[in-house]
Amino acid sequence: MLKNLRVTNFALIEKTEVEFGEGLNILTGETGAGKSILTDALGAVLGSRVGVGMIRTGAEELKIEAVFTAEKNSPVRAVMKEFDVEEDGDNLIIVRKLNRSGKTSINANGCHITLTALKKIGAALVDIHGQNENLALLRPESVYRLIDDAGEKIAEVREDYSRHYRLWNVQIRALAEKKKSKEENEQKLDMLRWQEQEISSAELKPGEDEEIDADIRKLSHAEKISEHVEESKLLLGNGTEFDVLTALAKVEKNLDDISRFDDKLNSARKLLEDAEISLREVYDEISSYSETVDFSPEKLDSLHARADVIYRLKQKYGASVDEILKRLEKIRSEISEVENFETDLETTQQVISKLEEQTKARAKNLLNLRQKSAAKLSTSIEREIRKLGMENAKFKIEVAPAPELDSNGGDSADMIFSANLGEEAKSLAKVASGGELSRVALAIKTISAGREDSAQTMVFDEIDTGLGGTTAKVVAECIAKVSRHKQVLCITHLAQIACMADTHLHVSKTDSGGRTVTRVEKIVESERVREISRMASGEESQSALKNARDMITSAAKIKRLMRDKIL
């Protein structure tokens, strides 16, 4: 709900602050006083386009500040969360500024937001009902939203349909891409087969490159290795008294002899014994190794040739044999995928056919639900239209099967209308005048006003244009009925509507310091009688004032009956 609107340096408004109440807020005043400027200011703070031409002459900056209630369960809370707008209790304070250089700033509860965010937040807060908005009702998406919101289970079925429709289109696009790539796949298959043959013919083994490198290093230095091995064997044990093992045996014998006379060297003897065992193991290992050292130029050449084969493959397919083998597996997988291309196409086509069947079934279900909802809704809206002075009007929301499925379903929706007896009912967009369209829109708003997921504030900008007499009274009652569920701001020139106000605001234009200034004031009961009198008869005679008081009394009675749910 809109609680407060402060406007500074906007068009003719130098500075004004308006407090709004619950229920029906009526704005009245002479033509040209600036009533529409106030709604323009509200539109600007909700995201409407505003240019530097709207800055009051002589000022450098315009500023509009609006304070709304944003209760926890209201639709705007979700939008605030989407754009990271901080909570401030139940308040949402929006401030929009624009200076002469064209620089604009927008804040919501102190958080800077973009114009896109403001528009989305504004749509969740206020529903402005004017000529442009009437035309918006004619858009297909608006008609669908009206039908779907009024019908049972439609939202659930629509979501299920949308999910299948998206899946179906994903597969259709995938099939198109596959068909497009068919020729490329055939060329790719030739290359893959050649690569597979090149790697397979090498008959690589895991870790083979590392083994070959080790063998090449060994064979390349076989002579030096052999010399060192033989020398090491001789030093350890060559059967003479000078080799290490023979010398150790002599030392061990000496220590044995000493131990018969003194045991202090027994620990040394034990260490020597362990050392001898270890050295004999070293000797045996070296001897075994010496038998494997076999220098063969032919074998070395063979290893170099094999290493060259592996090197060339590494240049193309990976840094090691293991990586090359992994690449081979991938190539074989790709070959299998390309070879199964036709089968894959057929499988995808089968998936598409199945999804198409499922999507069409859901579209048919959605069509049936929409037709039921449209029929029920049409009756209610037509009844409201007839109350608004078009007794012979015919109205129907027509939902028919469409030749093709789209994101909305498998149907088309249109509003069919006839204002007068004997006229053929045609599309509302083609036959309705501006006044008729306004009344149809009001009838729709009256029917849908109780929805909790819609904006809690509605603005009617001079909806009474061209109305009078009984029709004006009925329009007034409709607007009052809407205000039972929503906060309503209504600009009007009709006394029949103004007398229904819960809060009556008067807009006036005066001269101040050689400048024109627009003022907005909440008027008390006595002034309200005068204003209603002026609007009804253009004078403030005793009879006119009495008539105004009677209208206000009658309006109060009607509103009381509405509250008691009698009307």
Sheet bearing the most strands, described?
Answer: 6 strands, antiparallel
What is the strand arrangement across the widest sheet? 2-1-4-5-6-7
Low confidence ranges: none
Percent in strands = 15-25%
What is the 3D shape?
A: elongated
**Measured on Cα atoms, how large is the radius of gyration?**
46 Å
Distance between the termini: 25 Å
Counting DSSP E segments of at least 2 residues, the number of strands comes to 15
Keywords:
six-stranded antiparallel β-sheet; single chain; 567 residues; six-stranded mixed β-sheet; 20 helices; alpha/beta
Quick rundown:
The chain is of the alpha/beta class.
Compile the SSE list and pairings.
Layout lengths: L1 E9 L2 E7 L4 E5 L6 H11 L15 E9 L5 H8 L8 E9 L4 E5 L2 E2 L2 H11 E4 L1 H6 L3 H11 L3 H27 L1 H20 L6 H13 L1 H15 L7 H16 L6 H27 L4 H21 L3 H19 L1 H47 L6 E13 L2 E10 L7 E2 H4 L2 H15 L8 E5 L7 H14 L4 E5 L3 H4 L4 E10 L2 E8 L2 H13 L4 H22 L4
Parallel strand pairs: 3-13, 3-14, 8-12, 12-13
Antiparallel strand pairs: 1-2, 1-4, 4-5, 5-6, 6-7, 9-10, 10-11, 14-15
Helix pairs in contact: 2-3, 6-14, 7-13, 8-12, 9-11, 10-11, 12-13, 14-16, 16-17, 19-20
Write up what this structure looks like.
The protein is α/β, with parallel strands linked by helices. Helix content is 57%, strand content 18%. It has helices at residues 35-45, 75-82, 115-125, 131-136, 140-150, 154-180, 182-201, 208-220, 222-236, 244-259, 266-292, 297-317, 321-339, 341-387, 428-431, 434-448, 469-482, 495-498, 525-537, 542-563, and strands spanning 2-10, 13-19, 24-28, 61-69, 91-99, 104-108, 111-112, 126-129, 394-406, 409-418, 426-427, 457-461, 487-491, 503-512, 515-522. The strands form three sheets. A six-stranded antiparallel β-sheet has the order 2-1-4-5-6-7, with helices on one face. A six-stranded mixed β-sheet has the order 8-12-13-3-14-15. Helix 7 (182-201) runs antiparallel to helix 13 (321-339), helix 9 packs antiparallel against helix 11 and helix 19 crosses helix 20. The longest helix is centred in the middle third of the chain and has 47 residues, at 341-387.
